[in-house]
Amino acid sequence: MTVSFYPDIKTVSGVNNSHATSYRAWLQYTFITSTTYREQVMSLLKEMECLNGSDISESIEQEWTFAIRKMIGFQPAVVPEVKGNGLRIVYVDSMEKEAFHIKNEDGIQILAGGEAGALYAVFTLLRHIQRQGDLHSLNMKEKPANPLRIINHWDNMDGSVERGYAGESMFYRDDSFRENIVRWKDYARLLASVGINAVSINNVNVHKVESYLITERYLKDVARVADIFRAYGIRLLLSINYASPMEVGGLTHADPLEEDVAAFWKQAFDDVYQAIPDFLGVVVKADSENRPGPFTYGRTHAEGANMLADAIAPHNGIVIWRCFVYDCHQDWRDRTTDRARAAYDHFMPLDGAFKDNVILQIKNGPMDFQVREPVSPLIGALKQTNVIVEFQLAQEYLGQQRHAVYLLPQWKEILNFDTGHEGEGTFVKDIASGKTYNPTHSGIAAVGNLGDDYNWTGHTLAQVNLYGYGRLTWDPTLNEDDILSEWSDLTFGQEEHIQQLLEAILLPSWLTYERYTSPLGIGWMINPGHHYGPNIDGYEYDAWGTYHFADRNGLGVDRTVETGTGYTSQYAEQNAKIYNDPNTCPEELLLFFHHMPYNYELTSGKTIIQHIYDTHFEGVKGVESMVANWEALEGKIDDKRFSDVLERLKHQLSHAIEWRDIINTYFYRKSGIKDIHQRKIYE
Amino acid sequence: MTVSFYPDIKTVSGVNNSHATSYRAWLQYTFITSTTYREQVMSLLKEMECLNGSDISESIEQEWTFAIRKMIGFQPAVVPEVKGNGLRIVYVDSMEKEAFHIKNEDGIQILAGGEAGALYAVFTLLRHIQRQGDLHSLNMKEKPANPLRIINHWDNMDGSVERGYAGESMFYRDDSFRENIVRWKDYARLLASVGINAVSINNVNVHKVESYLITERYLKDVARVADIFRAYGIRLLLSINYASPMEVGGLTHADPLEEDVAAFWKQAFDDVYQAIPDFLGVVVKADSENRPGPFTYGRTHAEGANMLADAIAPHNGIVIWRCFVYDCHQDWRDRTTDRARAAYDHFMPLDGAFKDNVILQIKNGPMDFQVREPVSPLIGALKQTNVIVEFQLAQEYLGQQRHAVYLLPQWKEILNFDTGHEGEGTFVKDIASGKTYNPTHSGIAAVGNLGDDYNWTGHTLAQVNLYGYGRLTWDPTLNEDDILSEWSDLTFGQEEHIQQLLEAILLPSWLTYERYTSPLGIGWMINPGHHYGPNIDGYEYDAWGTYHFADRNGLGVDRTVETGTGYTSQYAEQNAKIYNDPNTCPEELLLFFHHMPYNYELTSGKTIIQHIYDTHFEGVKGVESMVANWEALEGKIDDKRFSDVLERLKHQLSHAIEWRDIINTYFYRKSGIKDIHQRKIYE
């Protein structure tokens, strides 16, 4: 199938020419003004050797010729055989499928383990050229660290996106698939360009209509999407409803140990693979937040997941089973129950009990994508179970893509966390990549931040998180500065001044957001439901297990072994010890683990209450800098993206002031302690 | 037009025979088991003299013969002339239209000023018979105290009801009128039986589609409703959209001083009266909560209302202009702005500036239908302006018809409040009735509590509020006990034990609700938006002007002249003085007017904090009693109503516990002061 891409930008629903730079994201392929460099490219890469392969080969040729023409101003010939200078792609059986080696030796060559590797190499080389990298000493040898590199869509078929902040779903509208092929292809291009190799296209909360995605009613449509993604090396996942045997199959139950249920799933997967032979597998949110699951029938999660695994195994499919299981009907009066404990308590006893094609997907922290949490104690503790670490690109609790927050620093901290489960140096990144325990499957998944907005992500700067997510899952050793400068070069051009301003805006943005929102590991001081804006007591007396316990003397959750919930004991010994003691607990997590008095003195010499005041004033100042830095970009980048971002930054500033004032006033009213700097705290 | 009524209960949408007792509300017309009494009725009232008049006459005959047949077991003959015993209705020109005099003199006679008066007399006599009142010494002389006795529906044409807690709209569905004639007629019967004489049938927030109610598109449907209501002496009102000249008329503005706008309204009202010659008038919410209004064009409310008044005057129509005008974008940081001041500040300067057919509708309190508020200072202060007092049957802030709350005690307090504006004894009830200032129009309106639920009001016991509202607006000197026992007799039968239990449940229910929710005049500690359930800080940092200012030392709003917002000065001198001083301020309103320390000692000898704890524990105990008392009714009333109410009372109990614990914990955490009785307050 041939689908044109964004030369035809006007064919994308809701996108017109004025949106072009926004829509192209980091695939601008801006014309390179250096004549010297262009001439070098023209001479070294005047032709490419044509490929004979699957749809991916066609994508490779398209991407290469299109991008070179845009950047350099000529279209390379595609020839049966390159003689002399040109681009040649050579498949090497001994290499891993997704690995590549780009070198300049007998002309520019890509050695690749397979077509996907070649595709990644082409995108890498194009990035290199856009940044005017040296082509003579080319020697780029890469392979992805994480076998699975997944985006989870939380799209509903009515067109809404759960926790979506970038318009409506690009896949669905009114319970049907949209006619949105050009955008789907452009989306696949964006993903492949940063190495994403799997996408689930429907919400993990699978409602009635989405339960039918695995049936005849929708499988042809699903296959259309799969076709588009396949040409970019991306495999499809669907979220399934654990109650489908009842809701779709007409059975009276969904007990995983009953024959008829197993038979239902076997048939369902046969149908799916009939339509999509390379279908990757399914994502399951079971027994979570009122979703059905094996608990209903007194079965374990292992029994529940293994039944699906057996049904999908003949097709080599996988079952991704989410560990986001906790009691969402908790009594706020009960200080002994601790939601943070839930995933570990539920899944740790099952280590080793899951089939080889089951993968547990574990959220990065024990709660739910807060501004700051410790790493989930389950990561690393499970040694005989396939795991995937789950991040969230969608900025649910992080400003909902109306606040600019560069998430890479958060993810880097998490990936570099030493779980200590196999002695010192048992890093999250190595557990995710499979290096530590060598599981059958491993990798990273993330909830996407995308919709049908003309800039994909609502906030233009939120594009960086999608870019960075891809790059980091490909290579977790990349650092956030380098990824940002790559992205900045590709997205806004290579002027050094632009890059400096973007760095000044984005590198500290997560910490800035943390400053004006959530001090010292306290989360959940947010409006319930939609999760936007401050509401300190919003979750305090609710059933979600999400409390701060602030009173007139102090705040924080006692999770110690001695006097608290004992959550600290879920970590490997050294970490457990550190977290359990307020004197050794990292201060940015102090209130996550301990209930502390307002006048407790931090290592900075400040009391907690003064720290709260200071960080909230600093946070607003940080946003003021962001606005000023962005304003300095006027005229240096296109007006549309300039004004789009400026509008959001201005909102961010006013909203940060709201956060600052509400939090400061709340804690001032409660503690009665004045700001030692006598700044304005409203009474 | 003849429409049958609830003998045909199965023809009402959503209602079946099992719902019969619920649906009949207080018009049960239960068969009277006393043979003596039945024989007395049969002998005294064996026939009635037929009437020749409008639709109301037909209603009178229908109501009388139907009810007598059900209660007594025979159907009175309707004869051209009653000779000897029987019921005769005689119209007396010198009486007011709605007045009547029932006496037994030459047989039972109803003297009435007009058909409406006769209808009210018939319902009164039927009530008397149902309660087996004496018929020999009959001498009931009545006329309504309030000329206008109105129910406002907040129904939207999509079928929803704003602040509706009893199902969907009985008037609309999917932007059309429903085919619901039987229910409309039964509704008119219920209203007329307690003297309501006007109904507005659409939400004061008039959206796009409802703007067309005054146009050809819907006027035929409106006229159908008017026909039904007319037969029960009820006139129709519509809420209008002040921006209709633009949204419906295609003008570019809605400036009330522009000719084209006036012409639009003149034409619109001509059309309305063409369809409904006795149309009563319009209700307007302008410049309120983001609704359009005259402020948009720099005009005053008087200019805005008078233009409409002039347009509708040729048809003798009225314009009811709501005074619920305030800044809903207030900054919580600003303690000087006071929403409570808003209505007075806006409207007081305009006293005397409104046309004779404009009526200002003033909410009972200065805020918005809280559990307890002082009386609006505007009531009584406006001396040269027609006013209507507005109540809310819909239990928006009072448990949403899931909690049983008998509202009459609240209304009685309000009606008996002495505003002092014409010296001692200037009661709200006399201002509303027109006795004090003798205005052209006056009366009482209330937001209805009705929907298409089979029991009309969601909670079966909420029927009492509709009944009581009608009775009280008819005669504000009736007391809440007597109204309750009337209602109880009619609704559940005359067993003394039943009545005692219902009194035990309902008479203290408002105070009980207040105890477990809102101490000492503090309001707004409720979930924003839907207004159900506790959320102490829910409105505290929001833009609605609704704050409690609780800190670690105390709580309440300083509305004094010296140190607060000066709101107290809006009252007549004596009240202003009383409210302004915490030592004389009625304690149930103490925190409405004053910011007080937790340890302030009340006249009970208790501190405020102890009062909070005590009332919250007592409130829950009160609900426990309600449940126990209701359970004692098992077998004494029909199962359906018994179980319906029991289910809601049980929910009320668990929800009251939630209120108690959250409020007690909130204030304990803030004050740090322990309950002197050492009951369980969660930390």
Automatic annotation (TrEMBL), chains A, B:
<feature type="active site" description="Proton donor">
    <location>
        <position position="289"/>
    </location>
</feature>
<dbReference type="Pfam" id="PF03648">
    <property type="entry name" value="Glyco_hydro_67N"/>
</dbReference>
<dbReference type="GO" id="GO:0033939">
    <property type="term" value="F:xylan alpha-1,2-glucuronosidase activity"/>
</dbReference>
<dbReference type="InterPro" id="IPR005154">
    <property type="entry name" value="Glyco_hydro_67_aGlcAse_N"/>
</dbReference>
<dbReference type="InterPro" id="IPR029018">
    <property type="entry name" value="Hex-like_dom2"/>
</dbReference>
<comment type="similarity">
    <text>Belongs to the glycosyl hydrolase 67 family.</text>
</comment>
<feature type="domain" description="Alpha glucuronidase N-terminal">
    <location>
        <begin position="25"/>
        <end position="124"/>
    </location>
</feature>
<dbReference type="InterPro" id="IPR017853">
    <property type="entry name" value="GH"/>
</dbReference>
<feature type="active site" description="Proton acceptor">
    <location>
        <position position="368"/>
    </location>
</feature>
<feature type="active site" description="Proton acceptor">
    <location>
        <position position="396"/>
    </location>
</feature>
<feature type="domain" description="Glycosyl hydrolase family 67 catalytic">
    <location>
        <begin position="129"/>
        <end position="456"/>
    </location>
</feature>
<keyword id="KW-0858">Xylan degradation</keyword>
<dbReference type="Pfam" id="PF07488">
    <property type="entry name" value="Glyco_hydro_67M"/>
</dbReference>
<dbReference type="Pfam" id="PF07477">
    <property type="entry name" value="Glyco_hydro_67C"/>
</dbReference>
<comment type="subunit">
    <text>Homodimer.</text>
</comment>
<keyword id="KW-0326">Glycosidase</keyword>
<dbReference type="GO" id="GO:0005576">
    <property type="term" value="C:extracellular region"/>
</dbReference>
<dbReference type="InterPro" id="IPR037054">
    <property type="entry name" value="A-glucoronidase_C_sf"/>
</dbReference>
<dbReference type="GO" id="GO:0045493">
    <property type="term" value="P:xylan catabolic process"/>
</dbReference>
<keyword id="KW-0624">Polysaccharide degradation</keyword>
<feature type="domain" description="Glycosyl hydrolase family 67 C-terminal">
    <location>
        <begin position="457"/>
        <end position="679"/>
    </location>
</feature>
<dbReference type="GO" id="GO:0046559">
    <property type="term" value="F:alpha-glucuronidase activity"/>
</dbReference>
<protein>
    <recommendedName>
        <fullName>Xylan alpha-1,2-glucuronidase</fullName>
        <ecNumber>3.2.1.131</ecNumber>
    </recommendedName>
</protein>
<dbReference type="InterPro" id="IPR011099">
    <property type="entry name" value="Glyco_hydro_67_C"/>
</dbReference>
<keyword id="KW-0378">Hydrolase</keyword>
<dbReference type="InterPro" id="IPR011100">
    <property type="entry name" value="Glyco_hydro_67_cat"/>
</dbReference>
<dbReference type="InterPro" id="IPR011395">
    <property type="entry name" value="Glyco_hydro_67_aGlcAse"/>
</dbReference>
<keyword id="KW-0119">Carbohydrate metabolism</keyword>
